[in-house]
Amino acid sequence: GGEELRLVDNIDRSLHTVSQLFRSILDIYTLDNGKLEPQAEPVNLGALLRDVVKQNTEAARWAGVQLRLRPCEHWVNVNAGLLTTMVQNLVSNTLKYASGQPVLIGVRPRGKGLAIVIYDKGRGIAAEHLPDVFKEFYRVRHARDKDVEGLGLGLSIVKRISQLLNLDIQLDSRLGQGTRATIQRLESVAPGTETQRPAATQSRLQGLRVCLVEDDSNVLMATSTLLEKWGCEVESHSDGLNVTTECDIIIADFDLGPRISGSECIAAIREQRGWEVPAMIMTGHEIERIRSTLIHMNISILSKPVRPPELRTTLLELTKHFAREMG
């Protein structure tokens, strides 16, 4: 019935907001604890931006926003996962506050480097608010903002990542005219470098044999589908007991039920194989506590819900370890 559907929708929205809050707090904690050391590599900036636009196509449609990308074929030296998070958070803001208006994403030369510029024709931000928009939980309130979902953490995360990557983030805005967000100081890869760079991300994951152990059938199916989309050969297990595999990399949930944990499953596979197979744990627990229990196991750890850029970046790091082990 209509009333029941309304209640379910309200509950769903509340859970989504709480999930966003936890995810954002985890992001801030990870960025602030000083232990994150981003690895840079040559990245096709045009392809990265196309991925962000594709991921936001449905959200843009619902917001009535025409999301346009000016094509570019530049390469930059950066951590792809963290830069993607920056752009994603900025695009999310435009969808919330420039509803019904066009949004343009482009790349421009800036000094010796490049800049990603995101223009919108939304309501804009008054000058007195601009110095504070990167603070946690700061939101510029407008008359109809009860209809706009948001936590006031997105720009704070963008600012933290910019400092970690040694980039500049600038926000210029005028009331009634729109906003321009600029990510500056991206290091351009010299002409010709793209022909010498390592294989592209897709080809580096192509054929990678992944043993995926997850007791939640929905998470197992979704993660397996994502990995296969990237070209991996996925061997899925819903139970961590007695797993035998010839995989290149192990991905396991930390909680696999009362009989075995993800770390125990990884240890058993490594013992069976006779070498330290690269591995990662996905967990919804407090990540530092899990890290302290696995400190001697050389296992990468990701917080749930795991976002695709994080998973892909960690996989790429693990493939480097695998390549070194294989000589």
Entry keywords:
Heat Shock Protein 90; Rossmann fold; 12 strands; alpha/beta; 327 residues; 7-stranded mixed sheet; 2 domains; 5-stranded parallel sheet; 41% helix
Report a brief summary of the structure.
The protein is α/β, with parallel strands linked by helices and 327 residues long. The protein has 10 helices and 12 strands.
Fraction of residues in helices? 40-55%
The fraction of residues in strands falls at 15-25%
What is the CATH homology-level superfamily of the largest domain?
Answer: Histidine kinase-like ATPase, C-terminal domain
Net shape: globular
Element order: H for helix, E for strand: HEHHEEHEEHEEHEHEEHEHEH
What radius of gyration results from the CA coordinates? 21 Å
Query: What structural class do the secondary elements suggest?
Result: alpha/beta
The number of distinct structural domains comes to: 2
Count every helix, treating DSSP H or I runs of 4 or more residues as helices. 10
Major sheet characteristics: 7 strands, mixed
CATH top level label of the largest domain: Alpha Beta
The separation of the N and C termini measures: 63 Å
Average pLDDT confidence is 81
CATH architecture of the largest domain: 2-Layer Sandwich
State the oligomer.
single chain
Flag low-confidence runs.
142-149, 191-201
What is the count of β-strands? 12
Please provide a written account of the structure:
With 327 residues, this protein is α/β, with parallel strands linked by helices. The protein has 2 domains: 37-194, 2-Layer Sandwich (Heat Shock Protein 90), CATH 3.30.565.10; 201-325, Rossmann fold, CATH 3.40.50.2300. It contains 10 helices and 12 strands. Strands 1, 2, 3, 4, 5, 6 and 7 form a 7-stranded mixed beta sheet that branches. The chain has a 5-stranded parallel beta sheet with strand order 9-8-10-11-12, sandwiched between helices. Helix 1 runs parallel beside helix 5, helix 4 packs antiparallel against helix 5 (154-164) and helix 4 (80-97) runs antiparallel to helix 10. It is globular and about 65 Å long. The model is unreliable at 142-149 and 191-201 (pLDDT under 50).
